[in-house]
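Hi R.,

Here's the chain you asked about this morning:
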Amino acid sequence: MQSILLDLKQILRRLAHSPLFTAITLITLAIGIGGNTAIFSVLEGVLLKPLPYPQPDELVGVWHTAPGLIAGDVNMAPSNYFIYREQNKTFQDIGLYQGDSVSVTGTAEPEQVPALDITDGVIPILGVSPLLGRAFNKADMTPGSPDTVILTYGYWRRKFGGAASVIGRTIVVDGKSRQIIGVMPQKFQFLDWEERAMLLPLQFDRNKTTLGEFSYEGVARLKPGVTLAQANADISHLVPVVWESFPSPPGFSVDLFKKARLEPNIRPLMHDVIGDVGKLLWILMGSTGLVLLIACANVANLLLVRTEGRQQELAIRGALGASWGRIAREILLESLVLAFLGSIFGLALAYGALRFLVAMAPAGLPRLHGIGVDMPVLLFTLVVSLFAGLLFGAIPVFKYASTRLNTGLRETGRGLSQSRERHRATNTLVAVQVALAFVLLICSGLMIRTFRALTHVNPGFSQPAQVQTLRLFIPESDVPGDENTVRLQQSILQRLQAIPGVTAAGYGNSVPMDGQTWTDPVYAQDRSYAEGQMPPLRRFKFISPGLLQTLGIPLIAGRDFTWSETYSRLPVGIVSENFAREFWGSPENALGKRIRVSTTDDWREIVGVTADIRDDGTNKPAPKIAFWPIYVNHFESDFFHIRRSVQFAIRTPRAGSQSLLTDIRQAIWSLDPNLPLADVHTLDYYYTRSMARTSFTLIMLAIAGGMALLLGTVGLYGVIAYSVSRRTREIGIRAALGAQRGALTGMFLRQGFLLTLVGVAFGLIAALLVMRLMSSLLFGVKTSDPLTYLCVSIGLIATALFASYLPSRRAASIDPVEALRAE
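And here is the predicted structure, written out as tokens:
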């Protein structure tokens, strides 16, 4: 132990006497270790950290598949919920939940707040108890029972100052008075959703429940020891029971539901939280791992040079009796000290990067609140620093600690040229650096091409930065009657159109890419359907006249809706171009054709065809859309159908400005002061958010690629510069014999070019193999895109030649007389 402490003192003294070497090494290691620490912290916080509930492994999401109807997941329906809860054998309990947005009035300025609608089992399933009051019970779920609400901790503190007397008080939610029965604890977080203001009870009347309405999400807790396979098998037996226990909705048959081939898809609740982000994070982890390897190669080269300079010292110590193990231990200890110090700076770098990441809050990255530097992250950093220290320390150990001890005394003369064998290790390390940098630059290059392809996709609307959107909800208690609601909405629209600078305005149930979707089957009158045959599913949008023009969605055939036919509730519709082409071959042929949703609905004449809209994001195919008037009757068996929660869109160059929002509030509140504004964003916000994951991936890979290029360039520069310093006498002799400056410069440029060429060749092979893992992240570009590979190869070779040229100039400027005299 005493000898180790003595070695440590000597190592620290040597490092202090070599400030440039120490600084370069620590910066290099801080970049490599810090990058890995930061990405691992994200990986651990998002993927590896368990959900913040008791026995989180027992929590599952209850989903379905319906291969006979639609690809992908299918949610829960009330009919399924009743049967599953009553007859399952594998769940402790099951519950439904649904996101909501509600207005709160009667307490100062009206506001729209996010809420969560749940059944009574959800809170017990999660294992959470209210901080104050009680949770929902079955009585709260019964239609006609007193209306209740549970507040979240943050809203309770903000709105009521944290007063315990809030229990029993009432607040007006969506125009309805509700009694506050509880307050959730401060640490309560529902999955990865944004903070909710309140929880509301879902109320289903079993006697009026029909099949369908798969618009709720399910959560359950497995009984101890039950597997996912057992739970899926259990629920699979109950699906036919659902079909037999409830009637089909008017206009639909039970056979239609049976032919959908509904099957359960019960999976860990963690999957519902993190989605498909795991593959992205592992790719980013791998990319920063490559940066660490490049950093280790750089440091190994520096240590090779440093250790070679100590050959005489090591040889003398060997001659005096120092063993190979003793010298190897000292070299490795120095490497570990450097790695440990580098990890400290790396932790500081990672901490700053994580704070920036959390503040940036990239869309599509879940569980941001769980990301930080905790004990697992510190242990990971320690392991990475030990790995790095042993990795770059082992190379000089094997090269100099044994075989060189016997020859070191004979090779200390400065007049000796460095042997090819001595060059081999440094050249190999540089080639490895270039190869790894090439792989990372290909990754970032493909993401740049992907992002460029996404920006060139026509989303179906124009100039989104000039469209201001906002959501309004008009409760029935505030404005009773369907037509009165539509007339108030039109009056609001007219006030908005009168705002200075506004060129168009409209409203509907959603705007493109906002995530608000409604999908149902659509029948065409000129098609025949077998008994129980399910027609194709289509995206539904309910729009006012003028909304298409406001959003910049072109009509390529026909016309828009009119206010006259809206108030008259005439049976008309508009479809998207891909909808029209699938059914009738062309947009023009679709005009005059008739469609409907259920067999008891009115047939609706198609009066217009719009361009296709990338409603799910620019990287997803445009869904086939049916547009309906905002006010219709005989729709899905409802006599009247209106939308009380609507999204207004306003086209103006002032979009996004505070002055415009002030004018909007004044215009709306002049008609009804109880209407709060919600989801206030420009359309560009939704458009940009649809590309957020690609942008995040591009930035992270570009940073990794940039660091790899920098480290690789520095490594190549160092090798050529060191080669020049070791061949000073040779250069002097060549110059004395008449070698020209260009020839001397070219000698070292060729060395750098060959090293780069070897690295690019191996990097090309590695990239073609590795890029298959990135295929799911790409859009509009192949993993073997020749343009990307060509540009990266040319750029990397050009950068390497520049890095080689700088020290090569020094070789050409050496005075042969001075060089020979010095030797």
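One quick note: The first strand starts at residue 59 and ends at 66.

Cheers,
M.
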